[in-house]
Amino acid sequence: MFSLFRLCRIIYTFARFRLDLLLPRHNLPWWLRLLLCPLHLIPAGKLTRGERLRLACEQLGPIFVKFGQLLSTRPDLIPADIVAALSDLQDNVPPFAKETFCALVESSLGDSVDAIFAQFDREPLASASVAQVHAAVLHDGREVVVKVVRPGIERIISQDTRLLHLLARGLERYSADGKRLRPVEVVDDYRTTIFDELDLQREAANASQLRRNFLHSPLLYIPEIMWDYTRHKVLVMERISGIPVTQIDALKAQHTDMKKLAERGVEIFFTQVFEHNFFHADMHPGNIFVSREHPDQPQYIAVDMAIVGSLTRADQYYLARNMLAMFRRDYRQVAELHVQSGWVPENTRTEELEAAVRTVCEPIFEKPLKDISFGHVLLSLFRTARRFNMEVQPQLVLLQKTLLNIEGLGRQLYPDLDLWSTAHPFLERWLKNRFDPRTLWGELKRYAPEWLEKFPEVPHLVFNGLQQVQNIGQWSHELALAREQMARQEKARRRRRYANFIALLSIAGAGCLAFSELNMRLQSIDVSQLPASVWVLLAAAGIAIIAGR
């Protein structure tokens, strides 16, 4: 059950910031519209709807802040003005008690912090909505950071996400755009994401994989995980020393090659997505640093690997070909690839989709390439395809969000960044290598044992397939009978509802006829003195009305 105090606070915040104005009132049931009427007495003020939603999230605490951050990464679903306002949400959460932090570390690692570490800083290094970080030194002299999940946060998350799920179901049911926006799916994604963030061993495993992928790479450095000190709620990793990527003045002061830094960010993204198929999906500026060494050959440092993404081989292939087709303005191929990949229904008229894509992209491509946002072109493409019933592709949304972060960061570092000239040769090379004979031979060697293992089953599978084909006729007949039975049951339910309605009308008519006779008697009767049987009958009538709906 929800905490009553928590629910009251949420309702108060909802009313204070007039979040009811975000709801589609014309689609709400009458009783809910009636319930929201008193809110008209509260002035909305001069704040925009996005600012009101952002302030409400901040007032409601870290879970709603995280949810607001998630919504800010879904420009495919959320209006642009709300996305812009929610993008300003920052983790600025007061730290919890240092004694509690030490107790959690000691209970997880089975010893006191003074015995585990040669030095331990009891003052927090950073405090976020989900976890808190302290600095420490191991006995071998290595500097580390200790990350611990906030105590009791699972219960708060569970309560708040249940309430968010309830609100999302209402929005999906009563909003005209409910089915397209998929609010329930967004909340479910958020719940999965934030509970994944609570598992620090999962984050450590992601970091270890990324570190292995970029080991000895001049592009990206991932801190080392101290597995002997890492548990479900505690993570110990190498402490890094770098310049936050947002501190442009500090980067320029050490004579960092800003053009190369921006281009290397793009290269890291495409390397992760297409070569490694394992990408850091939370690369906002707070998680990215730049090494102080070799400013002429700048290297990124990434932290907080709780959220990662990957694509299927088919999505990789179709995404790369879509991007290349856009580079070449081959809108026909873009439309055909959307149909072939299954991103839009197979009965979609290709020429209509081609015309819609051309209408969106041609005005964009009339600008100089350096002024075109690759991420926004991809976003516009997906929005256009959605008019043709394109389903939301969660894996592509995560990738698109990461691309927007990387491109925005690159243009902040080097405003003249031409992402297209960096991406185009990379994609050409990747597609060429994909069909290289050596690559195909490697794939054959990788999957050959599995194919040989399954080969003896092929005759049996063929026989079963033929048997199922023979049964299709019987299944079709049974399905038709089942549909007829369901239709009869629905017809019977409608008849019962109609009979209940007639019965209620009869009761009401009889009551009207008897009213004149009983009016004088009823005037002299105290309602509170009516016998219990009368109240039982009234309750039964109410139940009958509800059942008759």
From TrEMBL:
Pathway: Cofactor biosynthesis; ubiquinone biosynthesis [regulation]. Pfam families: ABC1. Its EC number is 2.7.-.-. Keywords: ATP-binding, Cell inner membrane, Cell membrane, Kinase, Membrane, Nucleotide-binding, Transferase, Transmembrane, Transmembrane helix, Ubiquinone, Ubiquinone biosynthesis. It is a multi-pass membrane protein. It comes from the Bacteria. It is found in: Cell membrane. ATP binds at L125, A126, S127, A128, S129, V130, A131, Q132, V133, K147. Residues 89-338 form the ABC1 atypical kinase-like domain. The active site is at D282. Belongs to the protein kinase superfamily. ADCK protein kinase family. Belongs to the ABC1 family. UbiB subfamily. PANTHER family: CHAPERONE-ACTIVITY OF BC1 COMPLEX CABC1 -RELATED (PTHR10566), PROTEIN ACTIVITY OF BC1 COMPLEX KINASE 7, CHLOROPLASTIC (PTHR10566:SF113). This is Probable protein kinase UbiB. It comes from Gilvimarinus japonicus. The gene is ubiB.
